[in-house]
Amino acid sequence: MASSQEKNLTYYHAGPLFTVADLHMNVLLSQEINRASGGKYRPLLPQDLEQRGNVTPQNIRDKDIRALLSCDLALFTYDGAELDSGTVVEFMIAKFADIPSVILRTDFRGGGDQKSEDSPGQPWNLMSSESTYTDGLR
């Protein structure tokens, strides 16, 4: 368990939420991060915020953005050759708000839309580039 002098940090755990596999991976990964950190890193999963009933997409979006902005850190799962647009938007909001962020790239394929003969580009959507650091890992 984290010592009483260490601050527990909440992190927003963003990623695609379209399949049971997506939801399951988010839960398992967040539980492991919490366990491995001795409870220091506590997840806020967007799937736990989803409202049911008479709600609008705008209500869901606004609640997710407020949750992201309330966190100390953020983790973004970039899954697949084509990134989930909602995750990219959340990443950009986190960058604009100076929220420390980590990208978890789960696809080994070199996707992205910025490759040319002169530049290998980064392996994801142009809107996420130049504000991320890969330390030479591609």
* CA-based gyration radius: 16 Å
Spatial strand order of the main sheet:
2-1-3-4
Regions with pLDDT < 50 over 5+ consecutive residues?
A: 133-138
**Architecture (CATH level 2) name:** 3-Layer(aba) Sandwich
CATH topology: Rossmann fold
Q: Would you count the extended β strands for me? A: 4
Helix content: 25-40%
**Which shape, going by the Cα principal axes?**
globular
Share of residues in strands: 15-25%
The CA-CA distance between the termini, in Å, is: 35 Å
Mean pLDDT over the residues: 81
Major sheet: 4 strands, parallel
Region (Disordered): 110-138
InterPro entries: Nucleoside_deoxyribTrfase
Protein name: Nucleoside 2-deoxyribosyltransferase
Biased composition (Polar residues): 125-138
